[in-house]
Amino acid sequence: MTTADQPLGTSRTILAAFLILGYAMAIGFTDNYVQLIARDAGLWQFFATRTAMGLVILGGVALALGWRLRPRRWAAVAGRSMLHGTAMIVYFGCLAFLPVATVAAGLFTAPIFTLLIARFAFGQPLGPYRIFAVILGFCGAVLVLGPGQGTFLSPLTLLPIGAGALYALGNIATRQWCAGETAETLLTGFFATLGIFGLIGMTVLAVWPQQVPQGADGFILRGAVGPSSTFLFWTFVQAAGSLLGVGMMIKAYQVAEASRVAIFEYVILPASAFWAYMIWGDVLAVTAVWGIVMIFAAGLIIALRGR
Known about the structure:
By secondary structure, the chain is mostly helical. It contains 13 helices and no strands.
């Protein structure tokens, strides 16, 4: 990077940081209400319904603003959508039988995978500051999520860690495969993929119905049911919030290097904690507060230190 390029690179990194902050606040709010959705319907119906709502909203906005939703490279967008879509299916599916802290900790190994993929697959140099920032951010994430979870190191954590690896691959694909695509095109592909997964899941459960536990415990095994007003309302909020949040996240990965942007995603942890306090009155422990400080310190290191 030349001296003339450095201010541009810094401004792009700062812009990406603000985009990720907006993404984290939107997703942190909507995800706090998934527990209400899980009581009334299943994972697959949730994704199918959210996709239908999201595509209607996105189509209306695209028509009003003249957006192009059709991909320039169908295979690249489909591949990227499959990676991120599968990661989200695994993530939400794991919530049925693992604590939220455990699943989130597994998903937040994504920045580690992003750095490793960027280094060994694409030859991007990794300076000591970014390596240190990732380690610091991950340790902060552990403190926020709460050390000592009963199943934190159980073999079941391989599934959410797998989601983290898929999520990292999707982040890399956003910049490496889909550089010429618009954020709205990638957002359409992401939502459409989740909707297809939802329809497949509903079909499978209709053909091979399972014994479904009551309430949120039956989230992953529950097929199509008559939607309640609570389900429809919060699924619509999920659709609108996800469109806004994921759109900003995609744009962040388009304007800056993936291994730098990935570290900012740690901010979703304090954002989720903030909304949990505002909505449910949950209060952070002292260790979690220190974890948030470490997460922001990691992001600051990435923003101020160049390559």
